[in-house]
Amino acid sequence: MPLPKAELHLHIEGTLEPELAFALAGRNGVELPFADADALRHAYLFKDLQSFLDLYYGLMTVLRTEDDFADLVDAYLERAAAQGVRHAEIFFDPQAHTARGVTIGTVVEGLARSLDRAEERYGVSTRLIMCFLRDQPAGSALATLEAAKPYLHRITGVGLDSAEAGHPPSKFRAVYDAAAALGLRRVAHAGEEGPPAYITEALDVLGVERIDHGLRCMEDAELVARLARERIPLTLCPLSNVRLRAVDVLEDHPLARMMAAGLMCTVNSDDPAYFGGYVGDTFHAVHEALGLGDEQLRELARNSFLASFLDDDEERRARYLAEVEEYEFEHAR
Ligand SMILES: Nc1ncnc2[nH]cnc12
Ligand SMILES: [Zn+2]
Which residues take part in binding Zn(2+) (predicted)? Predict the structure, then answer.
């Protein structure tokens, strides 16, 4: 049995495996510029975040109907549950779909169809987090929040993703203020490729409760001290950092140093179909590459539930936390 854990940094569009992409392309009459799933997989050699995003947005053209989004979530939950995920807070990128004529209603209703049966089918509790694309105008984010209003009962929070450099958090102050006024929780990608100052802005200007990635905080000792003191959770994604060249090899990843510095770290898979592993694989990889021991893996699992948005269900959180404390390690995840 794998270590029970929550996944807090997972882009549902990043779970689109090559085989499912080809199946959906066939179903929807979409022509893909790759001969087959293997040829597509061989294209997964990225030099930075942007080179990944170009392929990621391109492949999303196969997602068109509610069924497609429901099938995507089902495939993710089945894999995640098998790797010990008990709770998943799932990002989606509405603008990547509305820009190509798929309505936000199709996206949310499709995702929700699978999420509504996630507990019963896979034993996984879930939340949805709607992300704004930071390389799009702030007005587009505001329009997206407006379009999401009929679906807010399904959405727990908002996030900020896509190309980071040159798109500081402060660009999205108005939409985050509006989201907060609607009672939505707030997170944002910061310090993945962008500078440590973006992490500070995400906290102080956008009012986020967690930082997605936050890797580059390590360049600023005062910021590290603040993040540790305020127990700000960081949703790190070590396999993503290797594939997008933020670190050369996993052995160089600062996760162990970050934990030693008192940071509230979690590990997550980001876009597992593209980056070589789901979250259980990630736990296994950091155990192997960084020598994290059983109690450090337990800390990461504990943090994942503490940092989750299960505040509306403390009984469930306590149950998950008890599972973590009682877990007996037989193998490394
Ligand atoms: N790692 C990442 N960073 C920014 N935006 C993303 N969208 C999907 N994955 C992302
Ligand atoms: Zn991400």
Answer: 9, 11, 189, 270
